[in-house]
Amino acid sequence: MTTQTTGEVTMSFTAKDVMQLRQKTGLGMMDCKKALSENNGDPAAAETWIREKKKGKMDQRTERTTGEGRIAVAYGDGCAVIVEIQTETDFTAKNESFEKMVAEVANFALASSDGDVACSEEMTKAIDEIRITTGENANFARGIHYSGDHFGHYIHHDGKRACLIQVDNEVDGEALKGICQHIVFHDPLGISADDVPANIIEKIKTDAIQQAKDMGKNEEIAQKMAEGKVRKHLEENTLLAQKYVLDESKTVQEVLPQGTTVTAFIRYTLGG
User: In order of start, what are the domains of the chain with their CATH numbers?
Assistant: First the structure.
């Protein structure tokens, strides 16, 4: 046991107290011993003291670039979320404690309203824990909340690419995971042609007509060539018309159970 006397106040704590504080905060033995000394040997007060001191230092590092991180998905009662948390180095992003924190933040985000997720006090506290223990800057980058049922997702093994999808019927989880994997690797512009902005289609058509005319084609032929270009573009860039990544003999539409509609999907790439 360590006993220190300051004036009339006696502070006592054991090596076990120091070790437990170290395990909770990730800080060195001397830092933990000093914290206990400053707080009359009270472990709870010492932990709070450490976090306040460290957070003050970390707040000065918020301008440091956060180019690494992880994406997580969570499901709740009639809802789902996808979130992205960034940090400075790949080393920290691969750390088990960072991965656990990102999952925790995703679960906190389930309490959000639909649409963009705002970083709550609980989420900020969880992120601050990582900032304190790693000494790196970390921040909540973005998140989306959906209400409803019938969700599926895929997260790439490095945690840097992910997709969350929603359909209108019960579909096998592995089937939805496969479609999400397809979305991650093929990055469709939308679910179907109806989701592609009219200005994009018009530009493709206009460029194709001009290209055909430059080749000496007349107006009628140029129009037909442009229509073909638009059709091909939509086949290659809209989810339901794309060749399925796990079986290119089928389109994504053909992989879905008959009568099932994709109502929404969101694709995240770290830093995207």
Answer: 2-61 (1.10.8.10), 66-148 (3.30.479.20)
